[in-house]
């Protein structure tokens, strides 16, 4: 099997210096571990100038589109790494699935308005990547065997030459405003609780959207956000119309490596405290909350079922339950579910059987998604979708696009939500939906 070539570059903990060289290029994309502020992520991965771009057509089914993605990987051709080398990605697909891609997987109503006009998915097929490994302290250019020699030389020259970048700017022309009034929010929560009491569902993730008019370069906004809220599943993806996806997600959706599957759902949140003692009290309250543990367990059970569709019978395990993870603005309750892909199944089968993630829909999932469509006035677009890569070996990693923003058509949109159960207090849920994104909104309002 043909091998990729690796070309070392000076190590950079912060990917901004390298990405600034390509951020204006077609298909520029960065999957960002949030270093040096965040500590859990291992790799940064960036690329641009895709060999092909793929988006679903108007009436294309999910399975037909996923089959086209498989065909694109096949067209690039197989590749491996030389002995003694490791990398998360050796060439393949990088892009996003919007939450509304789920409409192509399941039969859902269409009551909510699509006022953002974001494509349900868009992927580039990339023959190269710049990869930084923060565990080993290395940065390198990786070239797939199919990448033409002149392109390799151009990229090497680009990243090895001295570079100065003109500072970009971004600003809001008004403060963020919520789409829902408090009265609207309360009414939606009470409607969800009526559905729960009627036995329709157990939990529904409900979100509200915040928007503001904006101007300038989305990359400048992203740099400010990653400094204020570093997270291990961050990402920046340019859109063809000059807009961009900005994600500061702390949550992994699905990872596949050598056939082994992992998902890490977040369910349960508390704000960080005002001092060390208060912070510890908030964390302890979350860890001991029966309500949050019950919600988390509900989603773990849902994910065990989702993974079971594509994984070997008996391989699904829960090695971590109710672990605490802390970020600059919130504490989270996180669990881990692992499994092994079944013979004849691949990473895209796993995505099709699990998307969108259970932690941001509810239980049972399809009924929860129907209720979301009824009660949220507008489509979610990117929010609660996924940024992901999938290489020609079948290696995949993906986020759940929470704490994420869309800059498009002169406005920036951001969403905050949470899981609603029978004993949820609407005022507390309303406040939590703001707490989760407050640092993002205030950072951009301060530029």
UniProtKB/TrEMBL annotation:
Q: Which GO terms describe its biological process?
A: folic acid-containing compound biosynthetic process; L-tryptophan biosynthetic process
Domain Chorismate-utilising enzyme C-terminal residues, every copy: 182-436
EC number(s) per UniProt? 2.6.1.85
Taxonomically, the superkingdom here is Bacteria
User: Where do the Anthranilate synthase component I N-terminal domain residues begin and end?
Assistant: 13-135
Among Pfam families, the record links this protein to: Anth_synt_I_N, Chorismate_bind
**Which is an annotated GO molecular function term of this record?**
4-amino-4-deoxychorismate synthase activity
UniProt keyword list: Aminotransferase, Transferase
PANTHER family for this protein:
AMINOBENZOATE/ANTHRANILATE SYNTHASE, AMINODEOXYCHORISMATE SYNTHASE COMPONENT 1
Name of this protein: aminodeoxychorismate synthase
Organism listed in the record? Pseudomonas berkeleyensis
């Amino acid at each position: 099997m043909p091998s990729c070539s690796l070309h070392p570059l000076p190590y950079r903990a912060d990917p901004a210096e390298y990405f600034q060289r390509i951020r204006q290029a077609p298909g520029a994309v960065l999957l960002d571990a949030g270093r040096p502020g965040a500590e859990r992520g291992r790799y940064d991965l960036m690329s641009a100038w895709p060999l092909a771009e793929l988006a679903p057509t108007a009436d294309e089914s999910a399975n037909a589109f996923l089959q086209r993605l498989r065909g694109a990987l096949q067209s690039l051709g197989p590749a491996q790494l030389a002995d003694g080398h490791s990398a998360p990605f050796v060439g393949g697909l990088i892009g996003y699935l919007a939450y509304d891609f789920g409409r192509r997987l399941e039969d859902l109503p269409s009551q909510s308005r699509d006022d953002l006009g974001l494509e349900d998915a868009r992927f580039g097929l990339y023959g190269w990547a710049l990869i930084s490994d923060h565990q080993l302290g290395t940065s390198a250019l990786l070239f797939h065997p199919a990448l033409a020699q002149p392109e390799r030389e151009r990229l090497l020259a680009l990243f090895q030459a001295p570079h100065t970048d003109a500072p970009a700017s971004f600003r809001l022309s008004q403060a963020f405003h919520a789409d829902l009034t408090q009265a609207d929010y309360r009414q939606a929560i009470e409607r969800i609780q009526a559905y729960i009491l009627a036995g329709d569902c157990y939990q529904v993730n409900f979100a509200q959207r915040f928007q503001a008019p904006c101007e300038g370069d989305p990359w400048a906004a992203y740099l400010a956000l990653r400094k204020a809220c570093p997270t291990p599943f961050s990402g920046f993806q340019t859109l063809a119309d000059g807009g961009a996806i900005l994600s500061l997600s702390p949550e992994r959706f699905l990872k596949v490596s050598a056939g082994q599957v992992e998902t890490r759902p977040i369910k349960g949140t508390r704000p960080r405290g005002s001092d060390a003692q208060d912070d510890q009290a908030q964390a302890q309250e979350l860890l001991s909350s029966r309500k949050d543990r019950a919600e988390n367990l509900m989603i773990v059970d849902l994910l065990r079922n989702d993974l079971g569709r594509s994984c070997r019978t008996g391989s699904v395990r829960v090695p971590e339950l109710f672990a605490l993870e802390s970020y600059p603005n919130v504490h989270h309750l996180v669990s881990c579910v692992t499994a092994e892909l079944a013979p004849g199944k691949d990473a895209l089968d796993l995505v099709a059987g699990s998307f969108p993630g259970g932690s941001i829909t509810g239980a049972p999932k399809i009924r929860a998604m129907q209720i979301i469509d009824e009660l949220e006035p507008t489509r979610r677009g990117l929010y609660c979708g996924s940024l992901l890569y999938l290489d020609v070996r079948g290696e995949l990693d993906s986020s759940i696009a929470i704490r994420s923003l869309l800059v498009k058509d002169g406005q920036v949109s951001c969403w905050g939500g949470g899981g609603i159960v029978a004993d949820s207090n609407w005022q507390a849920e309303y406040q939590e939906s703001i707490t989760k994104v407050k640092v993002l909104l205030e950072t951009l309002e301060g530029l």
